[in-house]
Amino acid sequence: MNSETLYTAFHGNTRIITDTLFKVALTIKEIDNHQSNILIFNDQTGQQIDLDLSGSEQDLKQRYAEIAEVKKVGRPKLGVISREITLQQKHWNWLDQQNASASAVIRKLIDQELNNPASESNIMLAKQAVDRFMSAMIGNMPNYEEATRALYQGNKTVFLELIQDYPADLKAYLEQQSAHAF
């Protein structure tokens, strides 16, 4: 999966930009320093976010450039963070039989899940992200509730039919974001 999170900004029903948080912030600052009627969404989660656009371009870069959080426990230069997990004895027995360390095996299993858009958990996460966006952007539009039901029922055909008459940018974004929800 893409490790860099993308964000999308809308002014009303018009998509302004989809890019990294820094580039979105920079673009919005150039367009409108007061952010009037501009909504920004995390494409992965569908959550709406607010940005502080004060200061210079360098200030925005320091504020919004993707910086890996460094913690003292684990191997922070490699991005490894040490935490405790609790497993049943049968799980520890299975891990002990593997060719790699327990941590390496668990990381591999998690990576397989993260990279499988067809997994049950990733499909549900995709549906929830689309739902959050829909609630914020089209909650008052016709067919909103029916489209939400079709989304959670996994009925792609009905979902696409119900959003057919939405403004072009909203419809295109919903089609793109819902690709892994079905």
Describe the structure.
- This is DUF2239 family protein.
- It comes from Acinetobacter wuhouensis.
- This protein has 182 residues and is α+β, with helices and mostly antiparallel strands.
- It folds into three domains: 7-64; 83-114, no CATH class; 120-177, no CATH class.
- The chain is 47% helix and 10% strand.
- The chain has a four-stranded antiparallel β-sheet, sandwiched between helices.
- Strand 1 and strand 2 (14-19) form a beta hairpin.
- The longest helix is centred in the C-terminal third of the chain and has 18 residues, at 120-137.
Quick recap:
The protein is α+β, with helices and mostly antiparallel strands.
Question: Topology of this protein?
Answer:
Layout lengths: L6 E5 L2 E6 L1 H11 L6 E5 L5 E2 L7 H8 L24 H8 L5 H13 L5 H18 L6 H10 L2 H7 L5 H10 L5
Helix pairs in contact: 1-2, 5-6, 6-7
Per DSSP, what share of the residues sits in E-state strands of 2 or more residues?
Answer: 5-15%
Give the mean pLDDT. 89
| DSSP helix fraction | 40-55%
* Rg measurement, Å: 20 Å
Number of helices: 8
Helix and strand content put the structural class at alpha+beta
Which consecutive residue ranges, at least 5 long each, have pLDDT under 50?
A: none
- Quick one: biggest sheet? 4 strands, antiparallel
Shape: flat
Topology as a string of helices (H) and strands (E): EEHEEHHHHHHH
The largest sheet has its strands arranged as 2-1-3-4
Count the beta strands.
4
Number of domains: 3
Beginning-to-end CA distance, first to last residue: 18 Å
InterPro entries: DUF2239
Protein name: DUF2239 family protein
